[in-house]
Amino acid sequence: MSESKPIQPPRRDFLKQVAAVAGLTLAPGVFLQTVSAAVNASQRWGLLIDSNKCGDCQACVTACHTENGITDHNRPETDAQWIRKVDLRHKTTGRVHSLPMMCQHCEHPPCVDVCPTGASFKRQDGIVLVDKHICIGCRYCMMACPYKARSFVHEVITDQKAHAPRGKGTVESCTLCVHRVDTGRLPSCVEACAATGRGAMLFGDMNDPNSELAQRLRTEYSTTIRADLRLNPGVRYQGI
């Protein structure tokens, strides 16, 4: 098998110019959310998910769809899934864990490495996003993501949320509800999980030693999915 050649700077610059023009036609009047002036590298937002507390409910998925204007077209193979529930079955015992899967907001995100236009990017606080205005829909990022956390938009989007710009022909994924985080609120999935009484999802600043998230990560066992890839995800799991 031949190795793919890295895209040379002139080619990458050309793609960025094409993407800028394409972006203007994708979603006129809808812009990527403003990055908070408070964003800085001293923070790293993350999640701790306890699969022992996570049941069969879909509260996190429903809340994500409602918050970000995602419509279910009853086509599970192609419908956008910013967050989805997956079942993990232990090979020996047969025990099944149900847990939410979404963008893992990696410290070293492969989706960013392969993006030819710079549309996939990571903020200083660790949140990985897609700039829909320069995404050309090549789907390299989808192939690079080991968590299958990205979706391609096949349909024309109507009535989209101003805080969650979407467009046909672009790739998207969990934003960690960045529009809420930047105003001091919890991601919608975390809020919905707490409302069920399960409390399986904990959000916080992994770099703040006084945060509950950082303290629990320090004192309790947790793991990451595909730790062997050394991507250092911002989403940690317990009970698996």
UniProtKB/TrEMBL annotation:
For molecular function, the Gene Ontology terms on record are:
4 iron, 4 sulfur cluster binding; metal ion binding
Cited Pfam families: Fer4_11 (PF13247)
Record protein name field: 4Fe-4S ferredoxin
Task: Specify the superkingdom.
Answer: Bacteria
Q: Does the record carry Metal-binding as a key word? A: yes
| Record flagged with keyword Iron | yes
Note the NCBIfam families from the entry: DsrO, TAT_signal_seq
Family matches, as InterPro entries: 4Fe4S_Fe-S-bd (IPR017896), 4Fe4S_Fe_S_CS (IPR017900), DsrO-like (IPR054822), ET_IronSulfur_Cluster-Binding (IPR050954), TAT_signal (IPR006311), TAT_signal_bac_arc (IPR019546)
- SUPFAM superfamilies in UniProt: 4Fe-4S ferredoxins
Q: Tell me the organism.
A: Thioflexithrix psekupsensis
Q: Where is the 4Fe-4S ferredoxin-type domain?
A: 45-75, 94-125, 126-155
* Alphabetical UniProt keywords: 4Fe-4S, Iron, Iron-sulfur, Metal-binding, Signal
